[in-house]
Amino acid sequence: MTLYGDNNLPADDRPTVQVAAVRWPVEEAEPANRQSGRKWFFPGGKWSFPPRGGRANRAWLLIAAGVTTSVLASAVGIGAYAYAGDVPRGTTVLGTELGGQSQAAAVEQLRAAVERQAAELNAPLPVVVGERTADLVPAEVGLQVDVEATVRAAMQVKAHAFERLVGSRAVPPVVTVDGEQLDTALKEVLGDQSRKMTMPGITWSGLTPKVTHPKPSLELNPEHSAQAVREGWLSGEPVTIPLTETHPVTTAEEVDRMVTELAKPAVAAPVTLTTDEGSVSIPPAAIAKSLLFTTDEAGALSAKVDGERLRSALDDDLAKVEVTPKNARMTLTDGKPKIIASQDGKELDTSSLGEALFAVLPQSEGRQVTGTLKTKKPELTTEKLAGLGIKEKVSTFTTQFSGGLSSPRSHNIITAAKEVDNTLVLPGETFSLNGHTGDRNYAQGYRDAAVILNGKLVPGVGGGVSQFTTTLFNATYYAGLEDVEHKPHSYYFSRYPAVIESTIFYPNLDFKFRNNTEYGLLIDTSYTSSSITVSIWSTKVWDKVKTEYGPRSNITKPKTVYLEPGPDCIAASGSNGFSQNAYRVFYKNGKEAKREKFSWRYSAEPRFICGPKPS
Q1: How far apart are CA 477 and CA 500, in angstroms?
Q2: pTM for this one?
Q3: Counting Cβ atoms within 10 Å, is residue 72 exposed (0-12), middle (13-18) or buried (19+)?
Q4: CA separation for the pair 579, 29 (Å, rounded)
Q5: Helix/strand/coil for 225
Q6: CA-based angle 84:85:88, to the nearest 5?
């Protein structure tokens, strides 16, 4: 029979008292010649009672029943005592007896014990980190006893009834710590003892491979640190914080072998590249520039040939086998836009070439690879240009110059115009005059002519280009295009419209506009012996664009300045200074759609006289 001292306990945890089973003999009829007295006997070699009958038999039954009842009562009482409460008897935490108590009472008692021991628990905790020691303040790293979790752990201690009656057991407290705060504190102790992983590597110094051998990192592992501190906090001994070494996947020996078996043989000789259009020699220098050694986060070293680096390294050598594509162009023929068709090119396919080249680099012989030439479309195809809507003249502007085409100033104006003629500006693109022509110097055919420098006219290469700039600015202005950058002259010149004009000086002063339409545009330039004209061809967006001027104000008179005579002195008659506003007005469907304000303040240009001041 199994007795349960506490019906609420699991069956396998309940105390058991084993009571020997009583064998009740079957009453037999006595032989006629046997004496009638009853005797004790042991049927089957086991204890048994004499045959039932008479008062003596009844007395024996009463005694047996009493003994059984007493045993049962004792077992029930012992089980009830041993299993009283939620925490097994004999259980202590931090020297505090919690056994036999309910969960709530145990929590309250343990919390009180923790508060009593607060000074001891908050005493500095010595830690050893590498070769350094330090004291941690438990409260600063979140070290504390989790009272409720500790009581739950104590409740789960398994003990049989006898162990619960006479045994004792100390349950370690459940300790928690703030991992982030602990890691920050330990890193401060660790200091410069830590080291980052040195990744293996192979780089090039010319044709010589340079090796970096791997080294392991030495770092804290936050999870291991927290575990060590939790387990060692209450031990009374310094806590040693484990440091973790992490080794790169590739070893030093493997790096050296890669140098011996790949890097050095790779640049020992050139490789012949053969295509349908001919052959090109890939020199060792180009191989070194394109053979890359890289490592991943785990420190695994790998090598590959970068096709685009190889193309850059071969540079002009590829011109022997490649064909450069040609963009579609547009010219004006008989006053109408005409498209000159684009042409496809041929380009070396580097997507698979790198892998093929990599395969032969370790070899001393048979260093040949076959390359494939693929079709390369131009950036601007005939079809794309035809769909850009360049069909009509949307604006034109002309300015006059003197001196004929032979003068240096006129020559510079025409030179800039020729460079810009037939320029296409795609939708959304920004055109920069400085970016298009580059530095306008003697090598490009420009000559010395008058420029404004430090407030006076002096000879300068490219003088006169400002007039072309102004002409181009006005053509884009009346086409309704977006003004990005321009700067009017310091002085007013009557050959230009006031305010809406622009100077230029490489590289500091530029003229830029943006094609803010959905159509392409073509810049057309033309000239005579006394004028320069710029026209914009596209699709009209506005019915018309015109300029409305405000009155001139803040008028100032020029002063007279006498300069040293000589080749660098340029006389000027001078002009008034003034302020003025100009309004660009856009019309759509016969009505004003919007207007933009342009403002400028002109300084008075001095009257420069090349000669001494009269006495």
Answers
A1: 8
A2: 0.58
A3: middle
A4: 149
A5: helix
A6: 85
Query: Are residues 355 and 416 located together in one domain of the fold?
Result: no
pLDDT of residue 167: 53
Q: Of 206, 286, 201, 211, whose CA–CA distance to 250 is shortest?
A: 201
Of 340, 355, 385, which residue is a domain's last? 385
Could you give the CA distance from residue 51 to residue 303 in angstroms, rounded to a whole number? 100
β-strand partners of 459: 450
**What is the three-class DSSP state of 277?**
coil
* Contact (Cβ atoms closer than 8 angstroms) between residue 32 and residue 20: no
Domain range for 457 is 393-610
pLDDT digits (tens, 9 = 90+) for 30-56: 444 444 333 333 333 333 434 444 445
Q: Which of 385, 401, 426 is the last residue of a domain?
A: 385
For residue 522, with 0-12 CB atoms within 10 Å meaning exposed, 13-18 middle and 19 or more buried, which class applies?
buried
Structure tokens that stand for 433 in this block: 């005059």
C-alpha closest to that of 455 among 486, 489, 417: 489
Six-digit token string for 230: 């939790």
DSSP character at residue 509: B
Residue 455 and residue 558 share a domain: yes
Q: Which residues pair with 347 in a beta bridge?
A: 374
- How far from each other are the two terminal CA atoms of the chain, in whole angstroms? 143
Residues 603 and 467 in one domain: yes
400, 536 in Cβ contact below 8 A? no
For the domain that residue 274 is a member of, what is the CATH number? 3.10.20
Residue-wise pLDDT tens digits, 60-85: 444 455 545 454 445 445 455 555 57
Q: What is the pLDDT of residue 83?
A: 53
* 349-360: average pLDDT: 90
For residues 334 and 268, state if they share a domain. Answer: yes
Two tokens at 608? Answer: 């420069």
Inside any domain, residue 268: yes
Domain match, 511 and 604 both = yes
- CA distances (Å), origin 579, targets 366, 550, 603: 78, 10, 9
Domain count, the chain: 3
CB neighbours of residue 202 within 10 Å: 21
* Exposed/middle/buried for residue 591 (C-beta within 10 Å: 0-12, 13-18, 19+): exposed
Least reliable range by pLDDT among 32-46, 258-272, 480-494, 525-539: 32-46
Query: Does 428 lie in the same domain as 570?
Result: yes
- Average pLDDT of the segment spanning 6-31: 37
Same domain? For 463 and 601 the reply is: yes
Specify the amino acid at residue 339. I
pLDDT of residue 14: 32
